[in-house]
């Protein structure tokens, strides 16, 4: 049943968001801390679990896959509801701050992922030495 | 006309599905015909979305892009936080724990590095523009982290509302730039595997930016980037009014 998959997804999200909100309160932060990430981990765990297999196999799985296929359209809708005018009105300072932060962060991606790859490389070398 | 308007208003979310569907179709057509597939259809769709949000903002003076047109209010629901997070979580279906573990430490470091680097970049720009008090520098720096961290931090340390508006603007610029820029720089920064996507998500952090950027680059990478990005705003809200504010205060006296 398709609804089983959708219900599983919904349950993961509600639980994850709740835990994220709770973490936020616990830490004294006015924001959700990792709710979506926790929900994703729950879904990964649930879809790997034997007991819950009936929730993700066949038609039930389609209930989850439908939403993951709706992801791009939802992102398009999200883009269409951004406050683009305000962003443009923030003036040179806002643009400079936003651009600088973005460019520097982009530049760090290869640095940090190479760091991660090197660490993996070392452990792989100790074993089979296999790395592409 | 009045009847049509009433029909559209009464079926907001359904209208949004139709409108977004047409937009995506048009975008893929443009991608194939004008760029022979070089610019991804979803990248064009996102840019069309942003452009229409700008046009709508000029007409309505509102904050929610096309959703401020009452007949398109459903786009606001479809693109709002609830559906966005629901769709993001669903992309985790089929993710392998082993891939997540591979990024491990680098993924965690990227979240801290991302918040810190964005904050320092924003704060440096604020100083460059002549700001000298700790509250202003911190608020603008926090805005460069994400448009949520900016106002949360600003509110906590007593920033004025025009400073908060500035911080939000900086954050929105960043998120738009990440959406549009990711497919352009993807090759340069090696963004073609789950591990790099996790590092990327942690560094960029803006949920909407990462969501849009990865969608336009390679949708298979979405869950990995989203997984780390989701911790970024929380960490920013945690560090902004505390450690980062105190550090700035120490530096500028």
Q: What do you see in this structure?
A:
The complex is a heterodimer of chains A (132) and B (253). The relative contact order of chain A is 0.09. Chain A has helices at residues 2-27, 35-48, 53-56, 59-69, 71-80, 84-89, 91-126. Chain A folds into 2 domains: 1-82, no CATH class; 83-132. Chain A is an all-alpha fold and 132 residues long. Chain A starts with a helix and ends in a 6-residue tail after the last helix. Chain B has 2 domains: 2-79, no CATH class; 97-252, no CATH class. Chain B is an all-alpha fold and 253 residues long. In chain B, helix 3 packs across helix 11 (207-217), helix 7 packs antiparallel against helix 12 (222-252) and helix 8 packs parallel to helix 12. The mean pLDDT of chain B is 88. At the A-B interface, helix 1, helix 2, helix 4, helix 5 and helix 6 of A face helix 2, helix 3, helix 4, helix 5 and helix 6 of B.
Instruction: Provide mean pLDDT of chain A, rounded.
Output: 82
Shape of chain A: extended
> What composes the largest sheet of chain B?
none
Strand content of chain A: under 5%
Mean pLDDT of chain B: 88
- Give me the count of strands of chain A: 0
Radius of gyration of chain A (CA) equals 21 Å
Termini separation of chain B comes to 62 Å
Number of domains of chain B: 2
Low-confidence stretches of chain B are: none
**Oligomer type:** heterodimer
What pattern of helices and strands is seen along the backbone of chain A? Answer: HHHHHHH
Task: Report the span from N to C terminus of chain A.
Answer: 42 Å
Q: Tell me the helix content of chain B.
A: over 70%
